[in-house]
Each structure stands twice: as structure tokens, then as C-alpha cells.
Amino acid sequence: MHVRLPVSPHKALPSPMAVQALLALGVLLIALSPASRGTALYLPLTATSPARTVAWSRTHGAALVAPGPYRGSFFVRVPADNLTGEALQSGALLFAVPEFLCGSPAQTKLALEP
């Protein structure tokens, strides 16, 4: 008696390259997620006004450090909580960034405290 499977095992399992790509993406996202009290880049995925980013940062207790490289993006100092999930819910990404990439020391003073 010959048993025939409805789907070939090769088609049901993802390819090794796909598994490796998913693992690499996961590691990259974990490595770039901002630590508590660290500096991060708030990067909206859609075109948004800077006022919306400022409102988001005030709502979540993140202090603005400097404007980001794109419209609506800002460098923020993340409070004790990890805000990666909240940023995703609002349609933005939050990437960890070294402090020295945020501008000159005079520019990185926290002018807008929440």
C-alpha cells in the first residue's frame, strides 16, 4: 500500500534561505530596538506633519532631542518604558541611534521637555 500525502513536504516547509532571512530580520529588529532611556529615531512610515510626531512624543513621555533626517522624523530620548510597540501602532518605526549622531552638543539639549 502506497500512502500519498496531499502536499509535498518540500512545498509545506519554507526554504532554508527564507528561514535564514526571517532570523536575520528578527535579529536586526531586536538589535535596533531602543533601550530604555536611550536615544532613538522616530521614523513615520507615511508622510506626516512634525506636529503629529511632537504630540506622540509628549503623549508617551519621550523627550525630543533634534529633528530627524526626514519630514516628521525626530530623534527622541526614550523614557524607562520601551515604546517600540506604541510607535508601530501609530504607524512609525523606532530605531536605536548613538547619541553622537543626533547633532552637535548645543543642538541636542532638550528644548522641549514633556
Largest sheet: number of strands, sense, barrel closure: 4 strands, antiparallel
Terminal CA distance reads 73 Å
Order of helices and strands: HHEHEEHE
The structure class reads alpha+beta
Helix content: 25-40%
Amount of beta strand: 15-25%
Work out the radius of gyration.
Answer: 20 Å
Keywords:
about 20% strand, single chain, about 35% helix, disordered C terminus, 4 helices, alpha+beta, about 110 residues, four-stranded antiparallel sheet
Short description:
With 114 residues, this protein is an alpha+beta fold.
Your description of this structure?
This protein is α+β, with helices and mostly antiparallel strands and 114 residues long. It has four helices and four strands. It has helices at residues 9-12, 16-32, 50-60, 84-89, and strands at residues 39-44, 63-67, 74-77, 92-96. Strands 2-3-1-4 form a four-stranded antiparallel beta sheet. Strand 2 (63-67) and strand 3 form a beta hairpin. The termini are far apart.
Write the layout of secondary structure elements.
Elements: H1 9-12, H2 16-32, E1 39-44, H3 50-60, E2 63-67, E3 74-77, H4 84-89, E4 92-96
Antiparallel strand pairs: 1-3, 1-4, 2-3
